[in-house]
Amino acid sequence: MAGEFGRAVEEIARDDRFAGVEIVQSSTRGSGDKSVLSVTIDREGGVDVKTCERIASAINHRLQTFEEAYRLEVESAGLNRPLTKPGDYTRFAGREAKITTSLLVRGTKTHRGVLQGVRGTAVILQTESGELPLPIETIRTANLEYDVRADLKRAKDKKRQHA
Fold first, then answer.
1. What is the rounded distance in angstroms from the CA atom of residue 19 to the CA atom of residue 147?
2. Cα gap 3→130, rounded to integer Å
3. CA 3, 23, 40, 55 torsion: positive or negative?
4. HSE toward the beta carbon, residue 90, CA cutoff 13 A
5. pTM, entire model
6. Which domains, ranges and CATH numbers included, belong to the chain?
7. What is the tens place of the pLDDT at every residue in 6-42?
8. How far is residue 115's CA from residue 130's CA, in Å, rounded to a whole number?
9. Dist CA 111 CA 47 (whole Å)
């Protein structure tokens, strides 16, 4: 199942109907008597439900000859988008992020700060205590962090300026 699903996801990535849609990550896992197939997508400006439905339909069509029961989940990367490729750290430079490492770095495995990009083989994170290089090979998970309070404060300040 994983091989067929992987090929279906690769076909979506090359399908002109989905130009501009990025496959952020995909996975398969067992859940009882069926497989769970999961795809996370993103696009400049965000992903709407219609796009998720179109991609799910295309994947289901490609898997229609497969007889094993499965559940397909297609979701937007969302506000706390996972960072899965080295290029993501440069693309989202200037944004808040949470990075978890497999090894202790400065006494902890969880790091928060502003992404500064990649230098050599390390992701650079600007933290309260200064610049923190995190070797890419030690990164277990990384996500953008959306701070709703900061967004509300910006909106409130903007409203005050126009009043």
1. 30
2. 44
3. negative
4. 8
5. 0.77
6. 2-76 (3.30.300.20), 86-147 (2.30.30.100)
7. 888 888 888 888 989 999 999 988 877 788 899 999 9
8. 12
9. 28
